[in-house]
Design brief:
With 251 residues, this protein is an alpha+beta fold. The chain is 38% helix and 21% strand. The strands form two sheets. Strands 1-2-3-5-4 form a five-stranded mixed beta barrel. α3 runs antiparallel to α4. The relative contact order is 0.12.
């Protein structure tokens, strides 16, 4: 069968000809896909704005030898509230870039990644404050790294495996988690982490986007900024590609 129907979110696009574009999408069933949107730049195109970045569609693709062709697209969500707010748009773009970097074709985790991508974009769009946006993105950062096999360890020291309770610890970017003070005497990790900050990130990794915990309510803008930057540094350490959108985020 040459036609495939799947839900997909547009990541970016490239000009192909005078009126055509190649659209890169992350799909629920196939992972990262690319399709030609023929005539999309014409005023009367049936695809039109549905091929804009950060739009979720149900798309029909005709499978080609090298590139698929996008035959139809039905908009599922345009996340329109994010398009009218600079912070929301920039953090949505950041999330999209992370998906582009870690997403792969024929991804066995495509449904899990797609659902995470859709949920975070939807939560960003409906957020009432920048703090709410940041919390959504922090949840995404933690959950995305868990899906791709780089989940962080917060419960126990990565060296001695002893549980770390209400005490300060150190966070190792290289090791991917926390180290107790005793073990760090030999390691020399410089980034000290308060146990309440650890508890916050641990909660964000566990809770869904539509659940507001006590940690969400008590979190300050500063806590969110520190956690976001820490997690971004960890994510950056697992890719050779520079995360470009971070340069325009005011954190």
């Amino acid at each position: 069968m040459n036609n495939v129907v799947t839900d997909a979110i547009n990541l970016k696009s490239y000009n192909l000809k005078d009126s055509d574009k190649i659209v890169v999408m992350y799909s629920k069933d196939l992972g990262l896909i690319r399709g030609v949107a023929k005539g999309v730049k014409k005023p009367k195109s049936r695809l039109g704005a549905r091929m804009d970045s950060l739009v979720a569609n149900k798309v029909m693709l005709y499978k080609g030898k090298n590139l698929d062709t996008i035959c139809q697209a039905e908009a599922l969500n345009t996340f329109k509230d994010s398009r009218q707010d600079f912070d929301k748009l920039m953090y949505s773009s950041y999330v999209s870039e992370i998906i582009s970097i870690f997403g792969v074709e024929d991804d066995p985790s495509s449904k899990e990644v797609y659902d995470l991508f859709y949920k975070v974009l939807d939560r960003i769009a409906s957020a009432k404050s920048k703090k709410d946006v940041m919390i959504a993105v922090i949840k995404f950062q933690l959950k995305m790294m868990l899906i791709v096999g780089f989940g962080l360890e917060f419960d126990s020291c990565l060296c001695c495996r002893e549980e770390i309770l209400n005490e300060d610890m150190y966070f190792s970017i290289q090791m991917g988690g926390v180290v107790c003070e005793e073990c760090n005497k030999d390691l020399g990790v410089k980034l000290k982490l308060h146990h309440k900050m650890r508890d916050f990130m641990q909660a964000m990794m566990q809770f869904d986007f539509n659940f507001e915990s006590e940690y969400d309510k008590k979190a300050t803008d500063k806590v969110c900024d520190v956690c976001f930057n820490l997690l971004n540094e960890y994510i950056q350490s697992h890719t050779d590609k520079k995360i470009k959108s971070i340069s325009v985020l005011n954190v």
